[in-house]
Amino acid sequence: LDAFIEVLCKNFTKYQRWTEDDEYEIVPRPKQKEFLKRIICSETPMHFSEVGSGKTKVIMPLLCQIFLSNNVEAHKYLARSGKLKDVLVILVPEHLVPDARTQVFRYCLNLNFREEYRVHDDIFALMHMNVALGSMKRIFVTSFNQFKKALTYDSICEKVYSHREHILVIADEVDDFLDRNKLVFNICSNKSNAFDRPTLDLFFEASRAAYNGLNCSDELLEASKNPDYWKQLVAKFKAIHSEIQDASKSINKSFGIFNEKTLRHCSTNIAHDIEGYKSLIARPYESVNRAMPGSYYSDVERTIFLTYVILTEDIAKYHDLFQAERKFISFEYWSEHFIHQLDFDDLVYGHEKLSEVVAKHPETRDGLSRYLYEIILRRMEIRDKSRSVNSIDVVFNFDCIGFTGTPFLDNYPTFGYISQGREDDIPDLIDRSFYAYTSEGLPTEAFEERFTLFQGQNNKVDAEYICSDFIRDSTDEMATLESIFLLEEGRAAEANVAANFNCIVDLCGIFKRSTIHDVRDLIKKHFGPNRFQYLYHIDPATNCDRVLCMNSENDVQYDEEFYRYLCKTYGASLRDRVFFFVDNRNVIGKDIPFQLGYQRHFGQPLFTKSIILAHDVDDFSKIWQAMGRSRTMNDTVFSIYKSDIPTDMMERCRGPFDIKKQELTRRLYIHNCDCRMAGNISSIYLTIVALFNQSQNTFYFCDTIVNTFLDKMEMTITEKVSGLEDQFANKITLNAVLFRILQHILIDKFRRSSNSDVANTEIPDDVVNEVIEELLRQIVRQKFEQRKASNDVFDEYITFLSGEQRSLMEISYTKQQQKQKQKQQNKNQDSDAMGIFDKENRLTMTFKTKNYFETARSFETDEVKMALNLPSSIPILTVSYQVDDAQKEINVFPTLQFLYSHHIHGSYISDEVQACFNSMKKDTSHFYRRFLEAVESQSKDRMVVEGNGVASSSQFGIKVLVNFIRQNPQYSIAGLNEGVYVIGMKDQFNAHSLPHYPLCDRIQYVSDEMGFVLFDKTDAKSVDRFGPYFIEQYILLEVLSKQEIAQNVMDYYCNHKETLQRGLDSYDELQGKGFICWRFLINETAKAIAAAKRDTPAGNTHDDNEEPSTPKRPRADGGGVAEADAVADGLAKQKLDI
Questions:
Q1: Residue closest to 19 by CA, chosen among 558, 600, 566
Q2: Which of 187, 691, 894, 1113 could form a disulfide with 876 if both were Cys (CB 3.0 to 4.6 A apart)?
Q3: Sheet strands (E) in 543-696
Q4: How far is CA 1027 from the centre of its chain?
Q5: How far apart are CA 960 and CA 186, in angstroms?
Q6: pLDDT tens digits for 257-284?
Q7: Distance between CA atoms of 531 and 1132, rounded to whole angstroms?
Q8: Is it the case that residue 1057 has pLDDT exceeding 90?
Q9: In this structure, are strands 1013-1016 and 972-977 parallel, antiparallel, or unpaired?
């Protein structure tokens, strides 16, 4: 093996360019060769190599070449658990996938080991029937989340599970892979929510109270079905609001708010993230501060509250929504919220933007926010089903090799440990000889010795910690940046040295609202136009290294050609001409080789002094990575801006000196070790889930508690959590190996706890099993916020396992639970939405014709078109509703073309549906005949108890019995008769095709997802008779599209039915049919009725023919109800002239 590594490293240089220094650009060093051999031969699966050691550029490509080789000794070590490996999976963070693919292709596509092999750039190639594992060696290059997502597909699981002993997983940046906040990946199917008006009102009141620091009305909460839930929710909202304050004011937190001003932090393409911006639901940040539409919030409740925050703080985002929905503001809503501030016509028919309305009439903000907030929440999707795979599942099921520059990992057993059925102490997943825990109480010398081991070759780093508390009070980002410049110059003057700094690393995302041109302008203003010539930055659209010219708009790529130009132009003074602005999205930069080349050429570092803006980032791993952005750490001086530094400590650490001798370094480093060892409640819960998956021989977990907040609201959560903990306890405790693993993990954590009460607790052997089982149950309860304090040692245990969490509410960011569906699919994103239908849910139809173009000219001969119009006789949507004592049912049947869309759930296409369409013959008349017979049979079977046609106050008691349609589809729907509808694609039932449609005589009217009536032959203008105004039409709109017009119609039907019918009776339909013409049909009628009731004395009659001329009413200015009445009276007598 030693000789083989030497040969490989020699050949490796031949892939490199020959530089001007008469040497290859990259030559594997002896230390890298030693590290490569250690990775292959060591029994420890995870390995630490300091920042800048060439893990991605050198080690990973050489590992791939060794895997593809037939070197016997190498494959003996790579076998790990005993089986030879023929599949290699390369896992890297998503942003490193393109670079990893490039490296693997470059070094592995042209090898000849006299064996056939394949290199795949997509893990989903496993779905192809020709990709058979075991037939040859295969390499897959993918991201962490894509691999987890692949393991939720049954077809891939069938291939991989039986072959997993022959698979080797190599994880780069393994600390990110096992980060406690990024362990799990959920793949979800979503559904519409069923929030009623009272629930939406409660969400609004709770959000408003928490945002404004007020108490929610006890009377309002007590009137709800579950007062305890809403009281807890208000407290939770207040905790979240307190938590996000820095984040919402541009200081980074990992759960920051996504809005227009943060778009420059996109990691992929701007267009994709603008789609995320346009989404009405609040969006989070993934990882540090990188906007990613598909990432997670900890739960739906957080999403709901942050949506209110966005609506309040970034109201301009909702201009389009307001313009589309303002015409549906009812006269009653205006009377309640705007009567003294805004004219009704200006509000409903006006053209002013939302922000302009609020600016002119600040008192309207609350009413408008409530109106829009309820629309947004009604359209919000919630999870329907969910499968999840977490990183611990991967470690438990595959032999893994990992490496990282920040080696702080929680400890887990390996696949070999589990498959061998071992019950001894779990070996360290990574060398922990340099870890330092609070419980150890290390003397100074011992700590510095361990820290030196962590530093590796970067063991002479000088740094200075500077208090950054002043940033909290700053509202202007460029003023903050200038303050930092002045502070650096002031401290340099005190030390009587030059203020030579040319690099800023914005670790915490302070400057996320500013553009690179803002930074350029400030640098020119502060240092003068000639101090720096160029500004290095990362392009937000392409994520490429760029250089912006200070004195022009030229923005060029920072590549080798431009670097050579800089060296020839400026020589050793190059570092005085380029300012490096590194934002927190950047992990690996193309400038790194140039840093090393510059130091070799000129004997000095390219970064003279680097300013690290850590501020509220307490994770020392992230701070060290930000410092490692300089590959010449021993020669670069660092200023680390950190908040909450004790005053006495600041006095003792003035000026840069050895970082390992600094008090704050010790505190941050030990805190980092403590936190990584303890994890949090999500990480220990996911460990239990992974152990349960082991007992079920599966990679993924099907979540049984899908929407925690709904279960809490409906008071079913306690029963479900009890069932889940019983399920976990029964399966894990009955398996001795798995139960012993959980025991080892927990006890190992407790021994190292910084809490002496936990660390010193001895659990007697005769009760240890009972204690661990009870702890398992309490962890599950705590995860779902159902645990109550027990006032014993278990309180201490749970507090310790919760990490920084200090309450029952897990309000900190986690990738465990709710995700909002990503509206736009993008290959560069780890999408969380279920996509391709399973094989059993695919319907294949084939038609043969001698001349397609000839047959397609006529509807009668075009078999494909005829087939696409065929309706299924199995309902895709069934809704029951109640009109007083009449229980009725609506069935919606899809056309074949509607099934050929992304609007349905694949599970609808069952064997029965497939058999239905496969029975089609050339003559389709028998198909339609069977369809009508089936519909008639279903109509007879359903129980309908006739009543008086008055809706109940609970909005019809709508129940969705069957629904395979995704939320917000684009469709047209044809009404055949009461309770029977056929749904097709947007333009399927158009004026040209409808006359040729076999069911044309049966179709009474056609409408679309907005409520526009496209065709009608009923001439029915009644809410109680079948037609475009029939209440069923708007129940379907509510269920499928969540249109505001549907809510208006149902509200009026329940509370103002007389007004509704009166409006219909007087409406001439010149503006169109359907209640989509709400403002012409209802609003004027409502105003007239309101005025008439106030104006006409008892016993008097009103002449309907009387049409006195009345001037347009003045805007109400708060003069009282009498004035508003007078205004409304005048309008009631005015005829609307369109």
A1: 600
A2: 894
A3: 545-549, 555-557, 578-583, 609-615, 637-642, 657-658
A4: 41
A5: 25
A6: 444 444 333 333 333 333 444 455 554 4
A7: 72
A8: no
A9: unpaired
pLDDT band of residue 861 (cuts 50, 70, 90) is confident
Q: Which of 698, 142, 108, 140 is nearest to 131 (CA)?
A: 140
- The yes-or-no verdict on residue 575 having pLDDT over 70 is yes
Out of 280-284, 401-405, 1101-1105, the most confident range is: 401-405
Retrieve residue 112's tokens: 């000849």
- Inter-residue contact 602 to 571 (CB < 8 Å): yes
Give the residue carrying structure tokens 């090898």.
111
Is the pTM above the cut of 0.90?
Answer: no
Residue 698 tokens read as: 């599966």
Dig out the tokens for 944 from the structure. Answer: 């309908």
CB atoms within 10 A of CB 1054: 16
Tokens of 241: 């609001």
* Angle subtended at Cα 366 by Cα 363 and Cα 372, rounded to the nearest 5 degrees: 130
Identify the CA nearest to 611 among candidates 700, 708, 734, 523: 523
User: How far apart (Å, rounded) are the C-alpha atoms in residues 663 and 658?
Assistant: 11
Buried b or exposed e, range 966-977, using 16+ CB within 10 angstroms: bbbbebbbbbbe
> Cα(895)–Cα(874) distance, rounded to whole angstroms?
11
CA separation for the pair 404, 669 (Å, rounded): 17
Distance CA 394, CA 424 (A): 21
> Per the structure block, which two tokens stand in for 533?
């010539």
Of the listed ranges 5-9, 276-280, 302-306, 1102-1106, the least confidently predicted one is 1102-1106
Q: What angle do CA 148, 705, 889 make, to 5 degrees?
A: 115
Using the CB atoms, write b or e for 52-62: b if 16+ within 10 Å: bbbbbebbbbb
Distances in Å between the Cα of 981 and the Cα atoms of 709, 974, 1009 are: 34, 6, 13
Closest CA to 40 of 8, 9, 61, 66: 66
Reference 184, options 387, 409, 401; nearest CA is 387
Query: What burial class does residue 491 get, using C-beta atoms within 10 Å of its C-beta: 0-12 exposed, 13-18 middle, 19+ buried?
Result: middle
Site of tokens 């000839």? 854
Tell me whether strands 399-404 and 381-390 are parallel, antiparallel or unpaired. unpaired
Task: Measure CA of the first residue to CA of the last residue in the chain; give whole Å.
Answer: 88
Q: Is 357 helix (H, G, I), strand (E, B) or coil?
A: helix
Amino acid identity at 897: Q
Given a cut of 60, whether residue 533 has pLDDT beyond it is: yes
Q: Tens digit of pLDDT for each residue in 907-928?
A: 899 888 988 888 776 667 888 8
CA distance 278 to 258: 10
Question: 């598909």: which residue's tokens?
Answer: 294
